[in-house]
Amino acid sequence: MRIEPHVFHADDLIGGDLALDLVNTVTARDGAPRDRLPDYAALLQWARANDAFGVRDLAALGRLAAASPAKARAALGRLKLLREALCSTLYALLRGRTPAEADLQRIHAAYAAAAAAAQLRRSDGRALRSWTPQLSQLDLITHVVAIRAIALLEEAEFARLRICDGHDCGWVFLDTSKSGRRRWCDMATCGNTAKAQRFQRRHAGVERRAAG
Predict the structure, then answer these.
(1) Percent of the chain with pLDDT over 90
(2) Crossing angle, helix 55-67 and helix 40-49, to 10 degrees?
(3) Per CATH, is 2-211 categorized as 1.10.3300.10?
(4) Confidence band (pLDDT; 50, 70, 90) for 188?
(5) Rounded to the nearest 5 degrees, what angle is found at the Cα of 151, between the Cα atoms of 150 and 156?
(6) pTM of the model as a whole
């Protein structure tokens, strides 16, 4: 898998779920995959583009990563293992296949580690789980995603879960459209590209018929 540095923006977060957006940090899974997380700093930049992480927590993670680069690389490696296991599991389920047991075990192990690092806090009259840099250390982002991943696998309406039909993409997303017929991750990118390609094919066909 080739590394491709990338600056994340809101347009990159089209999955409809944090766990799906992590899977989508690799693009072109249907061809020559490109990984947009070359280092822990890129992971923090991706996390800042989301609303699932606090500014202070991410700043603390940045300091931890700067103080321990080797630990940051190891934490990023664990997150990528979770990402790929989740992607393989989703692809298998969406294509009517049985997910690999090794992938399911990896996701569950990440969930177990996240649950062990969680703490309960009071919020609006409820008790909610939360994660801190003090307990999760550099795995905080992985822990939050692992919890979301289990919820996604258990609760998602799979009839609404899609793999983008676009070429050189392979992103996954929840289709929240009224019709339930969304085919592309983003109409402005893969959708327009597909339309342009169809137009070119039709135009080429007309020219060949005219020449014949």
Answers:
(1) 75
(2) 180
(3) yes
(4) low
(5) 115
(6) 0.88
User: Which pair of structure tokens corresponds to residue 79?
Assistant: 């997150």
CA distances to 166, 191, 192, 197, 212 from 203, rounded to whole Å, are 20, 18, 16, 10, 14
Q: How many whole angstroms separate alpha carbon 29 and alpha carbon 3?
A: 13
Domains of the chain, by residue range, sit at 2-211
Residues 131, 142: Cα–Cα separation, whole Å: 10
The two structure tokens encoding residue 163:
């793999």
Question: Sign of the CA dihedral 75, 80, 83, 89?
Answer: negative
- What is the C-alpha R_g of the chain? 20
| Residue ranges of E strands in 87-192 | 119-123, 126-130, 161-163, 172-174
